[in-house]
Amino acid sequence: MAPRTAEIIAVGSELLGATRADTNSLYLSGRLSEIGIDLRIKSVVGDEPGDLATLLRQALDRSDLIVLTGGLGPTDDDLTRDVVSEVLGLPMDVDEAIVAKIRARFERRGLVMPEVNRRQANVPRGAFVLDNPNGTAPGLLIDHAGASGRHIVILLPGPPRELQPMFERVCAGPLGERAGHERAYRTTLFITGRGESHVEQAVQPIYSRWRDASPPISTTILAAMGQIELHLTVRETDDTRARAILDRARDELMAVIAPDVYSIDGRVMEEVVGDLLKARGHTIAAAESCTGGLFTSRLTDVAGSSAYVRGGVVAYANEDKTALLGVPAALLAAHGAVSEPVAVAMAEGIRERTHADVTVGITGIAGPGGGTEAKPVGTVVIAVMVPGRPVYVRTYSFVGGRAMVKFQATQAALDRVRRMLATD
């Protein structure tokens, strides 16, 4: 059987609370994609056997592969094995070899194995046991033919340090062999400066044609803070052919949205800007108010940024805008701190003090207080100076809480530097 669709069921009442996240599903979805299996549904269920049984029956009706994580421990609430045994109609046998391994594991630590650990040796008849060198709970792989067809059901322990190496071996062995040679290949375009609906309007006429292509290319648009991600996926057996298909598709999209695409190779915005600065031999410095140094911090998150980052000044108070950046007090009084003349003066001031080639001035109202009818929360002014180019200054209106406004402001400022350097 070559599974094409998959479903993940994360088991554990703790995952339904506010303190524990299901990180296993993120790892599993990535690995499944790499071997050409489409993950359709992820579910989280508490330690209630009836709820788990209902989810498992539903999964068997719609997916080829079902991966269950957690609930393989020795306690009464670890019921995944029992529920799978009941739903699949497979009697449970005790595997004494598992008991021996668990006992030996305790003995190596100078301990006696509690009898409750024998529950971890219960194996639905016909299941393939997945060894767990990092814990006491073995995994299980069941190739099952039932009323709804043939399925693969995999049971994995919950701790990532146990689950991940176990699933790596499964992917390299029995699951990879069943999955066949077809793989899912992806490429992503990272876009900023356009909203999700504007991106959709521009690219939908293009990607809608790909659904009926051979092979079809699936397209997903994701909105994230400060950017839009455009994911293209094709299933192919040949790496060279798959890459050629995705390259052609990407080129079609770039023909209509290229100026707003800041990365096609996975680099984040600050890396893209840093590479442009290095390529042109430019240095950069920033004068920040409402962003509190976040712009400079993002630039210096990149290794080697000392080659082009000269420095930064955080001048929150008006007095410090004057004392540290030379912004005239009369200018502040006439226009207010959040204004285009002041943002330009901040960029000019940091240039005079650092002699950087590219300078940025950012001032605004991050909230939640401080806004007025004329300048509401989210109002941010950005000024950028690049050698040989007119000064850029613009007033933006960002939405969201304080952290969102600050991030969007730095993203817009970095993007403006990128655009100005890209056409330099």
Class per helix and strand makeup: alpha/beta
CATH topology of the largest domain: Molybdenum Cofactor Biosythetic Enzyme, Chain A
Average pLDDT figure: 94
CATH superfamily of the largest domain: MoaB/Mog-like domain
Rg calculated over all Cα atoms? 28 Å
Helical amount: 25-40%
Number of domains: 3
Number of helices: 14
Shape: elongated
Strand content: 25-35%
| CATH hierarchy, class of the largest domain | Alpha Beta
> How far is the first residue's CA from the last residue's CA?
56 Å
Total beta-strand segments: 17
Low-pLDDT windows of residues: none
Indicate the CATH architecture of the largest domain. 3-Layer(aba) Sandwich
Describe this structure as you would to a colleague.
- The chain has 424 residues and is of the alpha/beta class.
- It has 3 domains: 5-179, Molybdenum Cofactor Biosythetic Enzyme, Chain A, CATH 3.40.980; 183-263, 2-Layer Sandwich (Alpha-Beta Plaits); 269-422, Maf protein.
- The protein is 39% helix and 25% strand.
- The protein has helices at residues 24-34, 49-62, 80-88, 96-108, 160-172, 174-179, 196-207, 239-257, 269-280, 294-300, 318-325, 329-335, 340-354, 402-422; strands at residues 5-11, 38-45, 65-69, 92-94, 122-124, 128-130, 139-146, 149-156, 183-191, 217-224, 227-236, 261-263, 284-288, 309-314, 358-364, 379-385, 392-397.
- The strands form 4 sheets. Strands 2-1-3-8-7-6 form a 6-stranded mixed β-sheet, with helices on both faces. A 5-stranded mixed β-sheet has the order 14-13-15-16-17, with helices on both faces. Strands 10-11-9-12 form a 4-stranded antiparallel β-sheet.
- The longest helix is centred in the last third of the chain and has 21 residues, at 402-422.
- The two termini are 56 Å apart.
